[in-house]
Amino acid sequence: MMEERVEVFFDTLRADVPEYIHLLEREALRDGVPVIRRATRDLLRYLLRVHRPAQVLEVGTAIGYSALFMKECLPETSRITTIEKVEMRLVRARENLKSYDAKGQIRLVEGDASDVLRSMAQNRERYDFIFMDAAKGQYLNFLPDIMSILGPGGILVSDNILHSCDILESRYAVTRRDRTIHGRMREYLYTITHMDELETICLSVGDGVAVSHRAASGISMK
Question: 3-state DSSP call for residue 199?
Answer without folding.
Answer: strand
